[in-house]
Amino acid sequence: MRINLKVSFSYVYVVLVCWFISSFVFAQSEERILIVSYAPSLHFSDCDNTICEKNKISKPEWRKLLQQKVEQGLLDALSYRYTVVSLYLSLHPEDQKLFKDWHNLKFCYYKEAIPTRLEESSNLEHNYVKLVNFLRKNSSILQEKNKLCWQENLKETKYLQALPSRSTLLDSIAQIFNVEKILLLTQIEIKTNYQVCVATDGTRFDRSVKLHYCLYSPKNELLYGDVAVSKGKSNTNDIESFFEEHIGYLSYYVLSTIEKK
Q1: Which end of the chain has less neighbouring CB within 10 Å, N or C?
Q2: Distance CA 179, CA 195 (A)
Q3: 250 has pLDDT over 50
């Protein structure tokens, strides 16, 4: 019996490539990351009143829900590559108290800085789109958003950087939670252009959501800093639509930028 070596080689090659990609993407790293999210005072939104009125919730409830969704989205995304710990979403009362105490004691200072990604390889966009597509997390809408939002990210030349108040603070935190890196979410902004309405009933406007963040080592070394921007024609009233449109993109952008840092 004759064997088609060309076909056999192609088959083996495809199998090896698929195995390599799946191992690269899905193999969870031993590296552990702690997420510490922004303080309530670092939330800026021009649509709070509209969202709260429509959904019959208070501003504190809305902001708490937004913070929860942002952290949960990051947990879902980063868990493909790392072991992730979140203080804000922790079920342990002592972790929640520590989270509040840190913000009350102003454990970080903040300043505007130039995003690290301005110095990154131009392959970042390609790697991000490839990762999101492979994980099958994007819809046809999100596929378009990849291209649109990437240009918005490139326009951002400033982000809000967190500076630990003490040089040994991060090392202490890393030892407490047994982590190798600490992801600080520094600010979230929601800006709506109410002059650009794309629906006759006045419910859909041009909107951008910005998530500022930076990644530190326990030795107080800034590994990466950036602002993720999700832009789209958002429904100003529906909370679930808002989360569905923006949270996934922001989360996977963060993953794509801090990977291998």
Answers
A1: N
A2: 46
A3: yes
d(CA 57, CA 43) in angstroms, rounded, equals 17
195: its two tokens? 């002059």
Specify burial of residue 214 (Cβ count, 10 A radius: 0-12, 13-18, 19+): buried
Q: How confident is the model over 121-144, as pLDDT tens digits?
A: 556 666 666 666 665 555 555 556
**Other CB atoms within 10 Å distance of the CB of residue 82:** 22
Count CB-CB contacts under 10 A for residue 15: 10
User: With contact defined as beta carbons under 8 Å apart, do 113 and 225 qualify?
Assistant: yes
Residue type, 245: E
**Coil, helix or strand at residue 131:** helix
Which position has the token pair 């040994």? 168
CA 117 vs. chain centroid, Å, equals 14
Q: Which pTM was predicted? A: 0.80
Q: Specify the length of the chain in residues.
A: 261
Which tokens in the block code for residue 29?
A: 């790293």
Per-residue pLDDT reduced to its tens digit, 4-31: 554 454 544 444 434 444 444 444 457 9
